[in-house]
């Protein structure tokens, strides 16, 4: 083992420096970008470590190593998007399998699961995982995979990953957690008992809103191999340049989240005190239903929050039109602050009925809080709330 491969490096060090100064050709400090799709064989039966970039690429593998270490997994597969990561996981299921997913998950997750289940590829059931009786009943049907999103998108519901993992295992299921909203800087689901973590690396891991990517991390080395094989079969792997950019973004993960979650807490407290705001969903607030669990299983409350304007859709229209620092856009996790209206944007495809069951209302807005000055962000929200009240 080289002095740079020490297994006991802390997560901040892994994020900032995994792979630094390991370039075998020129000792480049920043890991090089290998764009080559193919690699020369030494002889007709003597491939090198890499032969073709669908099955393996040095830049992508470096990012995979860093993410696997940060999540405490046996390995990671880097995919072309977060949805490709989920699809890699569920694509191996068959008609005898069944998936149990939360009723209030990200709209794209629900769409993908329904699309696959609709083609008879596995059975699917959605449940309120915060309702112990409903969860126990659903686990009684012995699903093969339990999918968890905590905190959930967009309502920031928190579930006890340790408890659900234990229950799922007792029911014979594997458990996968979407850790996109927190990243391994703030939550490590494998240490809480999960079998897989999935990420949209598009969000906090890259952190600069200039890459779409994903990752699956597995606890079991045999599962890593099986997933790697399946990724090569279906070809859902991420591009090397995207991996290189994501590794560059990862360097500042801890510092970014530190500042972003400080801003988020200040904004949550500010919004809580506003008469035009009927509810604030942020696990860092003592009154949030998942506060105690979040304080136990997370290392911070993150930089995502949502809130409800009591004036509904019309208030939303006036509010977003008045914003100048927050940008109205899909996605999250970048250094710039974004606002999204889940009903018409991220969760539009979910349909009215599923949204009503999940509790996603017309007046709900989701904030991805960035690294701008706290005072500028709050002044922007203040201006927008004034517009809601006075128009
Ligand atoms: N998981 C969560 C929680 C998300 O918010 C998203 C996208 O918004 C995804 C997965 C999908 O990721 P991608 O857009 O990279 O496919």
Please provide a written account of the structure:
With 391 residues, the chain is an alpha/beta fold. It folds into two domains: 11-250, Aspartate Aminotransferase, domain 2; 253-390, Alpha-Beta Complex (Aspartate Aminotransferase, domain 1). 38% of the residues lie in helices and 14% in strands. The chain has 13 helices and twelve strands. It has helices spanning 11-17, 58-71, 82-90, 107-118, 132-139, 161-170, 221-234, 240-250, 253-272, 291-297, 312-322, 352-358, 374-390, and strands at 75-79, 98-102, 123-127, 145-149, 174-178, 196-200, 214-218, 277-281, 304-309, 327-328, 338-340, 364-368. The protein has a seven-stranded mixed sheet, with helices on both faces. The chain has a five-stranded mixed sheet with strand order 8-9-12-11-10. It is globular, with a radius of gyration of 21 Å. The structure holds pyridoxal-5'-phosphate. Pyridoxal-5'-phosphate (PLP) binds at residues 81-83, 106, 108-109, 149, 153, 178, 180-181, 200, 202, 212, 214, 331.
């Amino acid at each position: 083992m080289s002095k740079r491969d020490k297994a006991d490096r802390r997560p901040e060090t892994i994020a900032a420096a995994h792979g630094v100064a390991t370039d075998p050709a020129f000792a480049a400090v920043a890991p090089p970008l290998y764009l080559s799709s193919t690699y020369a064989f030494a002889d007709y039966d003597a491939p090198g470590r890499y032969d073709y970039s669908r099955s393996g690429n040095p830049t992508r593998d470096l990012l995979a190593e860093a993410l696997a270490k940060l999540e405490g997994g046996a390995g990671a597969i880097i995919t072309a998007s977060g949805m490709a990561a989920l699809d890699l996981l569920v694509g191996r299921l068959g008609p005898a399998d069944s998936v149990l997913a939360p009723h209030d998950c990200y709209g794209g997750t629900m769409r993908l699961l329904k699309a696959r289940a609709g083609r008879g590829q596995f059975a699917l059931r959605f449940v309120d995982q915060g309702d112990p009786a409903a969860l126990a009943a659903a686990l009684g049907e012995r699903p093969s995979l339990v999918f968890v999103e905590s905190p959930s998108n967009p309502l920031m519901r928190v579930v006890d990953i340790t408890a659900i993992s234990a229950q799922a295992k007792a029911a014979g299921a594997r458990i996968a957690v979407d850790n996109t909203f927190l990243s391994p800087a703030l939550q490590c689901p494998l240490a809480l008992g999960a079998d897989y973590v999935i990420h949209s690396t598009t969000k906090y891991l890259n952190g600069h809103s200039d890459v779409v990517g994903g990752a699956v991390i597995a606890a079991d080395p045999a599962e890593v191999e099986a997933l790697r094989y399946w990724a090569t079969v279906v070809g859902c792997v991420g591009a090397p340049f995207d991996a290189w950019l994501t590794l560059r973004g990862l360097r500042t993960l801890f510092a970014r989240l530190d500042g972003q979650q400080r801003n988020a807490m200040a904004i949550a407290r500010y919004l809580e005190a506003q008469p035009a705001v009927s509810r604030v969903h942020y696990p860092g607030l003592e009154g949030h239903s998942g506060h105690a669990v979040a304080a136990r299983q997370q290392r911070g409350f993150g930089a995502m929050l949502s809130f409800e304007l009591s004036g509904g859709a019309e208030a939303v229209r006036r509010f977003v039109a008045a914003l100048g620092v927050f940008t109205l856009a899909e996605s999250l996790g970048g250094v710039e602050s974004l606002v999204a209206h889940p009903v018409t944007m991220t969760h539009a495809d979910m349909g009215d009925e599923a949204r009503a069951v999940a509790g996603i209302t017309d007046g709900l807005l989701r904030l991805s809080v960035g690294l701008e000055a706290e005072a500028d962000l709050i002044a922007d929200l203040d201006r927008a709330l004034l517009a809601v009240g006075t128009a």
